[in-house]
Amino acid sequence: MRTLHTICFVMALAACKSEPNHPPLPAPPPPPPSPVEPVQATTPGAPGSQNLAPLAGVTARMREESSARPRVEVTAEALFDALADRGIVIARRQQVLAATAQAAYCALGVTDDSIAIAVCEYESQAAARAGKRLLDTRYAKLVPDAVRVLNGNTLVTVANATKTPARRDQVLDTFRSL
What we know:
alpha+beta
């Protein structure tokens, strides 16, 4: 029995001995980063700002715009449906914030070949003309290839169509025909 204890003891000692073939134990993980204080913007809503408070009401604002659409001859849906009838596939369509165009309601459709079609509905023809002037000046450098056309109190903007002018013209001709 004593021999058995001796053998077990020797085996236990041998098991404790480190072998050079074993890889070293991994280093302990670094401590978690300390919490970062949120950056406060000095100008609310300024570009690059971390202050997202101005965005809090966007959903409610868009809901209001959708429920108070003006009476127009050409709605965004009518244009998108007419384009589909002419074989222009609108891959995505969604409401967008109309306030940026000083409009009552706006929707954006993007074709399968990435042409952007923004349709904005205004309270009057005068408001639509003012909206067109605003967009032509404010976004001229941001979207230099944008073409804007009025039809009554609806404004359509077609952008990203420089490489496909025939498609752009087809969109504009369809809009004018409605």
